[in-house]
């Protein structure tokens, strides 16, 4: 005999139904409804009611309902006595079992399971009986087994301890402070008609909380259930409570400098306590919800720290029982640490994002156009801090493009990212080449990974990558060095696109045996060329090799038209290539080269002879006259070039190159030679034979500096026009 069960017998509905017998408590029909939504009891008492019911010891009861794709009930097994009064019959819409204000939320969850096929497990929910009372259940939504269609809704009538366990489990599933507050409010709704969570503003923004008990707390509404249309003036999520309301709630839960639960039993007492029509309109949800229990969110300590207040509102004819208040206090106490964890995560998230924004590229200027996209692996703070991108103009007129990928995520990675980025910027501004900068970053990563500052902090940056490109808008040359980074994509003006032929490098912080000198790859990026720097998250795909991913990126970048807005083009490329389920951050930096116009630059080459300064003065004077430069500016530039050329003849050797660049802000003068000595500004006496040249340069210019080349050095200086 074949013992293999049929498909229908193994469906979720039948599996749940067969389990019913194991959970029906002894006592059969005499067992009454369980849970805090029991509406029986003294309807006139306006104080907490002693709870001597045996319902708190009742076991959970399991039931099942099948619905089709239109959310119509097709089968149900709700035969246990606890489900008496639920009008669940085939042919009726499932939403008829729900309170009206829960219909949109539950319908959305049912549709999501139908579309995705992923179960929605163990959510606290209330079901409406035909007599108007409500039953608190744990509701799970499961996709029906093939070949059946539709859904199986598993229903468990909640016992007291199971309710608390399920609520705490649901609340601890997210580190987002808004989602944590929303989960807490949804769990609290089992005890009333409306539940709200109001947090201290410092907690909501992720700031530090004080251990001192405060009489004045600025509260912001973080969560409110159910989701419905609220009257004008009522405080909804994201709104600050009126100052009077914040003060009253703070005083209520901080009596005698100790947090405690407060119950206001009816509408008359609520209005008397609030003592303001505006505050009543802001806090009281509806007329029928007249009684409220205010439970402080407290971190244990000496003194305790109040994070906020949770409020549960319900009708005056359903006073809070003592056992219910104990349950509320226990639930909130159990979950307060989840709120604090979310607060700490929010603080880290805010710090990382602030650092990320500081590193985002600025506008490129007149000689280069810049656009960038940074997309974390996940939208919450856990996905921020891995990649970094930066671009900035250098004092000598060039532009630096930097993209890096720091190992890991979070605040440790963000701190390393910021340190490497700022160090790279400082070294590039000081005139070092990209290969020299990477050598310093390599040493920095190694030092950060020592036992004291790196591994002891639980974070290692070994294996981080970085790519640096320097664009010269006069010669249109780009000098590029890479430390373990993927090769940039170059799109030439004729539309040809492909990765640059870079020599592989092991990355930053590699072991001594693996370290190799950083190469400098120099190429020409003619005007209207497009350079794409990126991180591996953009091109990595489990279904493709890394080379295929790079080729896809090259093809996508090659479609960017010279007239397209570069920022929109960058977003389009990321949207086209980024994986559906990101496992890593995605970063893209696009740079469109423009350069200077030919008429705005001039280059002079002179032999290092005694007459070089005079020849330089004459040729520069003629050029500035042709450019129609103001007389005062012309005289400054002529004197400046004369001093720089004189120093080059006196202290250096080889040919001398003079380059003048006319920009929007001023004139940039560059004098290059083959010397390797660094000019230094120093104080000198009137009778000193040397040292006055750089003092003159310093006084004539807005800024000046030195950068190193393969053949020597270049002294540059800027003069305001």
TrEMBL record:
The organism of origin for this protein: Streptomyces sp. R11
TM annotation in the entry: none
Catalytic activities: O-phospho-L-seryl-[protein] + H2O = L-seryl-[protein] + phosphate
CDD domains in the record: HATPase_RsbW-like, PAS
Keywords: ATP-binding, Hydrolase, Kinase, Magnesium, Manganese, Metal-binding, Nucleotide-binding, Phosphoprotein, Protein phosphatase, Transferase
Biased segments, Low complexity type: 25-39
Pfam families: HATPase_c_2, SpoIIE
Keyword Nucleotide-binding: yes
Basic and acidic residues bias locations: 40-49
Annotated InterPro entries: Bact_Sigma-Reg, GAF-like_dom_sf, HATPase_C_sf, HATPase_dom, PAS, PAS-like_dom_sf, PPM-type-like_dom_sf, PPM-type_phosphatase-like_dom
The protein's Enzyme Commission number: 3.1.3.16
SMART domains reported in the protein's UniProt record: PP2C_SIG
Protein name, per record: protein-serine/threonine phosphatase
